[in-house]
Amino acid sequence: MKTASFLLAGLLVATVFVVSGNSSATTSFAEEETREPDRTAAPFSSSAAFDPGQVVIASGNNRFAVWQDTTPGNSDIFFRRSTDNGVTWQPLVNLSNNPGPSVAPQITVSGSNVYIVWAQENAAGTTVDAFFIRSLNNGATFGPKVRISTADTDNIFFTRPQVAASGAFVYVTWLDYGTAGSSDAFFRRSINNGGTFQGVVNLSGSTNVDYLNNIVALAASGTNVYVAWDDFYGTRDILLKRSTNNGGAFSAVKNLSNGGGVDALGPELAATGTNVYASWSDFSNSTASFDIFFARSTNSGGSFPAKLNLSNNAGDSGAPQAAFSGAFVFVTWQDSTPGNNDIFMKRSINNGATFQGVKNLSNNAGSSMNPQVATSGANVFFTWNDNTPGNNDIFLRRSTNNGGTLQPLVQISNNAGVSEFPQVTTVGANVYIIWQDSTPGNYDIIDRRSHNNGATWQPTQNLSTNAGQSTMPQIDG
Questions:
Q1: Best exposed site among 81, 264, 311, 423 by fewest CB in 10 Å?
Q2: pTM of the model
């Protein structure tokens, strides 16, 4: 049996796709935020790596960026917005403004409403909770922050809140480690645009969640809500619960991986209409390595046909990310099969029923990691960080025909510092990439945009521009 070994470098998160309505050394806090995980033992999953990993849907000409920042002396959650498609950005806003550390922000948007969650510790370091804040006017102003968890979650790096929205409904999930020595997946919903929240629901119950290498994956589509996690202390499988009434009640648990592996972890969820797509990493007995697995449902999570092994090769495959556009589904991951880490991709043209052959997107001598993917119509954009130039830079490949062919590699960052953990999102012909970058002498949040489907790119913009460490960026639209 091969066991994944991961060293956390902070709070780790995974992709949340939202279709609204329709479619033992002592380490300082600052060191813990920026240190990269040890990935020598096994591939890291997107939820077991220091990976921002979220892409959500747009809101008109408004763009929203959020990250954690140590400039105030502790780590706070900072926010900026643009009202002109990212050409200019409004002043910085400190959302958490807390004497203790605040980490791991996540953001989603529904209409003119902006919802943000994060994990927060009090000044004494004695309590940790998941917090929520909302804006009802496209980020112009925010209401008071709200404590979402109702019991101390014990460790700020294990809380990992996620947020999704559909119409007036807002959903938040998080991990609570410390209750009777176990970890559980919790859920809470609002039915009035985040004005108030109903009671806390323990979704995992007696199945203990892997608090080291996992988040509680969350997706929503119309009235359907999906939550997935890995059962660390039980069968080591990927488990899922669904609700078909906006989180009012959840079905019995479904086992998506259903044996055959030994260490399933890092679930990713994407949902559109009645289709649900799940991907994860698992040690495969047939290949004696970690592979990328995929399962889909076409009836709102009512049933899932047999899982597919997408990578099925001799190397270790991890960090899966998925995106869709109509009947096309794209799954990308990092893979050590070539002898170094490269970025691989497979696509489906029939809603995930079958997948075509694998494509090596990076195909170079360096280590390519932290893949992300976004779509807009027939355009598909893949981005990752790559140390081939000698330092980590951000690279991009795009397709203009639903992944049928790929355009040449584009180096997005091209600077002397460490550029890593990119995020990508699209709105029509506009493409936005954001990442953390050490080039200024500390980590800042850097943004670059294209207004012609990635054909050409505008100069970079420094969104944080401060003396602290600005990390873990998230971008909407």
A1: 81
A2: 0.88
